[in-house]
Amino acid sequence: MDATFECRERVQEEHEIQYEFILMDVAGGEQPPFMQYYQTECEELPTSWTFRMRNQQVMDTGIVSSSVILRRDDSTNKPVHALVLVSSFDTSYIDSIPRCSNVFENDTMSPGDELHGFIPHLAQFPSLKNCVLHKALVVIRIVICDCHQERNEDSITSESDDNSITFPSNI
Asked: How many domains does the chain divide into?
């Protein structure tokens, strides 16, 4: 599995990393796992992450399912918002419409937390009768947000003693 790596840091609001690799038809069975480590270059709240993806192909149907895990590895005790977008594209077509797109997110990822996702139908390879090498392009985008602003979980009270809503004074 050849992987290409592209890192795009957006220091204003979010940090984003993108991985791309070609998923090959292995005629059933488990694909080689994909694992990457990433550390944001954030001046306010640097965070580190491990991303794992394991793909399994069913021989009878050619369907590839996938499980993904994003783990926060740093020790700074401040939650951030993490989002994982996994898309697959059929490489036999030139268009840019994804065959499959799945989003997994958690808006309160703290150190040691894991974000789990399952994709039941990431790709499907036809039968091998025509002897054509089948492959799919998998694109993974990881976005880390809310590290550049102070998160104040107590700033909005939905119900107080007098049933009113209290907003922070800066709104």
From this structure: 1
Report field, pTM of the whole predicted structure over 0.90: no
**Do the domain assignments include residue 134?**
yes
Query: Residue 23: which of 50, 62, 51 has the closest Cα?
Result: 62
Planar angle of CA 29, 19, 31, nearest 5 degrees: 5
> CA 144 to CA 85: how far, in whole Å?
12
CA–CA separation, 171 vs 20, rounded Å?
41
**3-state SS class at 90:** strand
Q: In a 3-state reduction of DSSP, which class is residue 43?
A: coil
Residue 86 lies in a domain: yes
- Is the CB of residue 47 less than 8 Å from the CB of residue 115? no
Tokens 């150190």 map to which residue?
A: 111
pLDDT tens profile 93-119: 656 667 788 999 999 999 999 999 999
> Considering only CA atoms, which of 105, 141, 136 is closest in space to residue 121?
136
Phi-psi region of 90 (alpha: psi -120 to 50; beta: other; left: phi over 0): beta
